[in-house]
Design brief:
The structure is a single chain. The chain has about 650 residues and is α+β, with helices and mostly antiparallel strands. It has 25 helices and 22 strands. α2 runs antiparallel to α3 and α5 packs parallel to α23. The longest helix is centred in the last third of the chain and has 35 residues. The chain starts with a helix and ends with a helix.
Length: about 650
Amino acid sequence: MENLSNTAAHILEDLDSDLTQREKRKISREISTAMVALTCLAAGLIFKGIYPEQRAVLGMIYSVGILVEGLPLLATAIRGFLQKDIANSMEILVSIAVLACYITGEHELAILIPVVLSVVHFLEERSIMGGRDAIEGLKQMQASTAVLETEGGEATVPAQTLRKGDVIVVRPGMALPIDGTVIWGNSNIDQKSLTGEPLPAPVREGDSVYAGTTNLDGMIRVRVEKEYQDTSFTKIVNLLEQAQKITVPEIRIVDKFMHYYIPFSLTVAALTALLSRNINYAIAVLVVSCPCGHMLVSSAPMIAALAVATKRGILIKNSKFVEQLTNITTVIFDKTGTITRGELSISGYFLQQAESREELFAAGGSVACNSMHPISRSLVAALGDIPYEDGFQVREVVGSGLVGVKDGREILFGSRHWIESLGYRPMDPHLDTGGGPCNWIVDGGRVLGCLMFDDTVRPEAEEMVAALHDKGIHQTVLLTGDREFSARKVQEQTGIDQVYFQLLPEQKMEHVRQLRQQAQVLAVGDGINDALALAEADVGIAMGAMGSDVAIQSADIALMNNDLTNIPFVISLARSTKGIMYQNIGIAFSVSLVMMLLSAVGVIPALAGAFLHNIGAFIILLNSSRILRRNGVLDQPRAARRDRREAADAKG
């Protein structure tokens, strides 16, 4: 027995990286019992050849093998029968087959059937485990150690011992073990494990970094913000593991059928024995009716879909992925941070007394360079090569603007209302009716002009909306708290059907509730200020969820990046997954019925049936693996959709 245990342990060495401790123990036990049973079978055959008349001793040898291999099977079958657990249907049917073999004197077959089933199911488990490689590989991306800064210098410590506020050193090539903030240095971070984005993200002092990512080229010092077990990466892995167990109501037809499947199989076996007067045919029926493929109908496609989604930075959390996402007819979007980048940029300018654009920008930049306000930062970013004068003493007037003074020269940069309150007269008040803020610049008493700011629509937004319409989405809606002009401008740029503006979060939720009375609604938002709308919708998708616990918890699906093309992609993926699930149902039951028919007429003997009954399972695995080939975002090429729209415009 010790040698058998060592042999089983040796076999498991090659599988160690792919198996959990529970799976290792289970397989080790199955290997050991199979070896004992085969040893008894071999001993029985040898003894039968030498002492054919000693049937009592031979029966004892065979009985040991049957008990070793059959008792665990029988215990599981009885437990499943008492608990009415359809997951144990196979054990119930095989146990009946083994008992029938034993009673009729087919002792060799009583040993071989469960042994062969164990071997085949081991191979089957290995195939299923291949679909989990993406998640298992993801677990290895969070570093287990860290270089901690201490009073005595640097020390390598387990990542689990890090506490909030600790400072760690991350050198090029090192993986990050925690979520934190860069406090020194700059580098490029490979974040594709979380976002699916192939290009590295540049980081510098003040930027956030996340566990599960890799530092590429520069040394940085990072302050720990979340401990090892609380990182967004850890929560994502946990959610992915839970998501593997997703089942959907449509597949409950399998569960309902399985309650009748065992009585049906037993009836067919009984009729076979009665009509053919051959118990071996009946045993073969029981063996081939084992419902291995039925258990993979929904799990195999879901594991494949999870693997594809994870590689694109899409986190699927629950059964709504297939249950309701496939029936969506209306998609609702937030504007800021979802359809737009959530960052202000200069959309235009007006010259009143300034002689050139350069003069206007330079005057504004002289004071904006001393402010961290988003408007000031966007102006500085737009200056480019335009030189500006620094050294101004800048004072911020909260809610109004900036005052900069140098050598008696005063520059004002702020809102029309504030500029007018100081006695100046900006021209053309209609400039302030734009989508974003409009700031005026006064230099030495001269009203130079104004700069207009607006949020930038994501470049893929129009393509995404067109793709949704191509996929049969009847209505797209924009809900925003911004003004009408800004909302209409986004509608014009993206092709969204309806727009509602100047809404509070509670009003957004009410709009979602009203739309749900007429359609299946998908809501897309940033997961923080849109949490109410996401929770109210039939399905909620949170954009840019990396590092946001609120986003991960509030939505049914979380996009770890801000790629809008993932929205039509995930709808297409859900539809494909659901379609393959239905195909699997047909495959599973068709193969079972054909195999039972062939066994009933003697074409398939019991021992061959122990191998062949898995045909349905392997076909289902192959069919489900087609999902892994879904790498494209949209079903139609971008150029084709553009040509079709241009043709429609020309016709109109």
